[in-house]
Amino acid sequence: MTGATVLAALGAGTALAEGKATAYEGKPVRIGQGTAHTVIRTGADGAVAAIGLSFTEGTLEALPVAAPGTNPRFAYVLQMPTKGPKTVVDHVVIDWESVGHPPPQVYDVPHFDFHFYLVSRDEVSKVRFNGPNDSGDPAQQPPAELMPAGYVLPPGTAVPRMGAHAINPAAPEFQKQPFTTTFIYGYYKKRLTFVEPMATLEFLKSKLSFSAAVPRPARYAKAGAYPSSYSIGYDGERKVYEVTLGDLR
């Protein structure tokens, strides 16, 4: 039985053991013409092996499109499984960016931002900025040891009720290559508050598989296991997509 088959057999908030592995699912949320839910997988020792999202093929269909002059972002909040071990992730928000977002000619195409928040929804609701350039304020810049090597927190990336976004200037989309997938770190008042895989609608519909290492900071302010890799995949048999944070340590 494949990992995707295990997930498909689960009910919301339940667990299913297959040999040495156990998977736990969160409550499904309606998106487009499909549903999405969180997933936690553990190994034989009970330790968390992966944290992720699973969503059906219909999720990419009949998505909302913002009217001119309105907020082009549509947010869907997903709770973590009620059973199984706790992780550093408090909740997940899938942001459907119907027309993309800045910077222009980089992320201004329809895509999904998968925010894995390390803080509560109440804390996220209190994230405030005077403007997008607040991310360049020294009050927002985290200590070097809390930033992955090569990442920077540039002005223009502060988003209220979310955080300031640290990017990797060496990522393909900043090297004049088309944006398909990437990985962002999010901060507020110098504290890491979320990790964020991103993927374009076009890439997801291609049903290609992708995985990459995740650069890690020297230390984390919140104790726990954090990803060393992330992956995006599609199971044609089950018609299910998965976005996974893996190699936790």
Question: Which helices and strands occur, and which strands form pairs?
Answer:
Elements: H1 3-8, E1 15-18, E2 21-25, E3 29-31, E4 34-42, E5 48-56, E6 73-79, E7 91-97, E8 111-117, H2 121-125, E9 158-159, E10 163-166, E11 181-188, E12 191-200, H3 201-206, E13 210-213, E14 229-235, E15 240-246
Antiparallel strand pairs: 1-2, 2-4, 3-4, 4-5, 5-15, 6-7, 7-8, 8-12, 9-10, 10-11, 11-12, 13-14, 14-15
Q: Helix coverage percent of residues?
A: under 10%
Low-confidence stretches: 1-18
Shape verdict:
globular
Structural class: mainly beta
What is the count of helical runs?
Answer: 3
The separation of the N and C termini measures: 26 Å
pLDDT averaged residue by residue: 91
How large is the share of residues in beta strands?
35-45%
Instruction: Please give the number of β-strands.
Output: 15
What is the H/E string?
HEEEEEEEEHEEEEHEEE
Describe the largest sheet.
8 strands, antiparallel
As a whole number of angstroms, the C-alpha radius of gyration is 17 Å
What does this structure look like?
The protein is globular. Strand 4 and strand 5 form a beta hairpin. The longest helix has 6 residues, at 3-8. The strands form two sheets. Strands 1, 2, 3, 4, 5, 13, 14 and 15 form an eight-stranded antiparallel beta sheet that branches. Strands 6-7-8-12-11-10-9 form a seven-stranded antiparallel beta sheet. With 249 residues, the protein is mostly beta strands. The chain is built from three helices and 15 strands. It has helices spanning 3-8, 121-125, 201-206, and strands at 15-18, 21-25, 29-31, 34-42, 48-56, 73-79, 91-97, 111-117, 158-159, 163-166, 181-188, 191-200, 210-213, 229-235, 240-246. It is 7% helix and 37% strand.
